[in-house]
Design brief:
By secondary structure, this protein is mainly alpha-helical. It is built from 1 helix and 2 strands; from the N terminus they run ββα.
């Protein structure tokens, strides 16, 4: 895709060529962060 075809993510405002793939990345990122936080809390 050319730069003119890029879309902006409504969550992080990044310019992306594949919004669906970027949204999947966001979902995975949030899940990974939540898991890491839970693990850190369990270690306390």
């Amino acid at each position: 895709m050319s730069t003119t075809d890029d879309m902006t993510c409504p969550d992080c405002h990044a310019r992306v060529g594949d919004l669906a793939a970027h949204e999947k990345w966001h979902t995975r990122l949030v899940a990974d962060v939540a898991k890491a936080v839970n693990q850190a809390l369990e270690r306390r």
